[in-house]
Design goal:
single chain; alpha/beta; Rossmann fold; seven-stranded parallel sheet; 17% strand; binds nicotinamide-adenine-dinucleotide; binds uridine-5'-diphosphate-4-deoxy-4-fluoro-alpha-D-galactose
Length: 355
């Protein structure tokens, strides 16, 4: 195992996929919580400009390397360089993935290659370098159809699309790897629905092309780039018939990563694989989210109800009590704040990050 950082040095964390939506917010949290992040990103779904904004918010240098998690040689060199600098990587935060559910059904090989093979290459390089702590971005999508709600971590794992399968496979790989390597610690974070943006309005979600998810589509409609929002079904068994999800503020989610790294670095001998739901424990319907957004932004969001989206479930929300108890993490920000902060980002950056 690599030597830990010397006294007085901030623990260095490799953040794979750190230039993306969740990664940039997580970098802010890491810096604020006394970590020294180093980003590795191939920028396949993000922009280096996002990292400049993180530097602006934090006042920290925030090192970054362009590279791919599937490139074992590049990973070896990166881990070695950090060790040579006397500041070895102490933990890897692995957010690097392709994430569009629909696209994963039309391009499954790309998803398995990027998300599963990529993780294998990363784990092999970590083992070679003696880096024995990993926090992995999993997803609530690993649960599939709810047998009961709220989802608890012990719920059966039964994803319903290739993207979800990649997350479930990686969790299984990590479980098996932890059993074989008792000194390796893996923490899987099962995110529910992160929305909003950093309160500064400097960083936020910047989808390429047509957004797939509800909140970015609401914002796209609000700035006039889409004529109306399509509400996918109003005949679910929910109070107003529209789909219910557990939306959490992306800055709360980001803080969950800092807590998970604290936990991973503490060792947790004997329980070296763990998985936690990160959500608020509260459900919000599509129409409730639209209303909250209209109230907070002062902008009308026209919508039309259309057919259900294939593969959607009616309701999903988390039981976040395990993360509350074990990690000491709670998602405290309200849906109203998610809408305010999301809109602040969108109206200040109608075209996303500069090229
Ligand atoms: P994102 O696309 O904004 O960020 C992912 C980042 O990883 C991007 O910067 C991309 O360029 C990079 N990347 C992808 N493949 C890579 C590779 N092979 N090598 C190096 N870099 C690579 O997505 P996000 O919303 O920030 O999601 C981050 C993580 O959280 C992903 O693993 C995603 O599956 C997971 N997740 C996201 C959500 C959500 O609603 N956003 C929900 C559950 C889980
Ligand atoms: N919806 C609409 N119109 C849209 C988009 C979505 O009505 O234009 C509805 C959906 O039918 C659903 C709700 O809004 O009821 C939320 O949909 P999203 O696409 O925003 O989120 P999902 O819960 O379907 O899926 C997202 C990610 C998954 C992830 C999951 C849990 O896309 O990758 O959250 O974290 F696994």
């Amino acid at each position: 195992m690599s030597e830990p950082a010397q006294a007085g040095q901030l623990p260095r964390i490799l953040v794979a996929g750190g230039a993306g939506f969740i990664g940039t917010h997580t970098l802010v949290s890491l810096v604020q919580n006394g970590y020294r992040p180093l980003v590795l990103d191939n920028f396949s779904n993000s922009s280096p400009a996002a990292l400049d904004r993180v530097r602006q918010i934090t006042g920290a240098e925030v090192e970054a390397v362009r590279g791919d998690i599937r490139d074992g040689n590049a990973l070896d060199q990166l881990f070695q360089r950090c060790a040579d600098e006397g500041a070895p990587i102490e933990c890897v935060l692995h957010l690097a993935a392709l994430k569009a559910v629909g696209e994963s059904s039309t391009k499954p090989l790309e998803y398995y290659d990027n998300n599963v093979t990529g993780t294998l290459r990363l784990l092999e390089a970590m083992l070679r370098a003696g880096v024995m702590r990993l926090v992995f971005s999993s997803s609530a999508t690993v649960y599939g159809e709810p047998e009961s709600l709220p989802f608890q971590e012990r719920h059966r794992i039964a994803p319903t699309n290739p993207y979800g399968h990649t997350k479930a496979m990686v969790e299984q790989i990590l479980r098996d790897f932890c059993a074989a390597q008792p000194r390796f610690v893996a923490v899987c974070l099962r995110y529910f629905n992160p929305i909003g943006a950093h309160e500064s309005g400097l960083i936020g979600e910047d989808p390429r092309g047509e957004p797939n998810n509800l909140f970015p589509y609401i914002m796209r409609t609000a700035i006039g780039k889409a004529p109306f929002l399509r509400v996918f079904g109003n005949d679910y068994q929910t109070p107003d018939g529209t789909g219910v999800r557990d939306y959490l503020h992306v800055s709360d989610l980001a803080d969950g990563h800092s807590k998970a790294i604290d936990f991973a670095l503490a060792g947790n001998e004997g329980a070296n694989f763990s998985a936690f739901n990160l959500g608020t424990g509260r459900g919000t319907s599509v129409l409730e989210l639209v209303s909250a957004f209209e109230r907070e932004s002062g902008v009308r969001v026209p919508y039309q109800v259309t057919a259900r989206r294939p593969g959607d479930i009616g309701e999903a929300w988390a039981d976040p009590s395990l993360a509350n108890q074990v990690l000491g993490w709670t998602a405290g920000r309200s849906v109203d704040q998610m809408c305010r902060d999301g809109w602040n980002w969108q109206k200040n950056n109608p075209d996303g990050y500069p090229e």
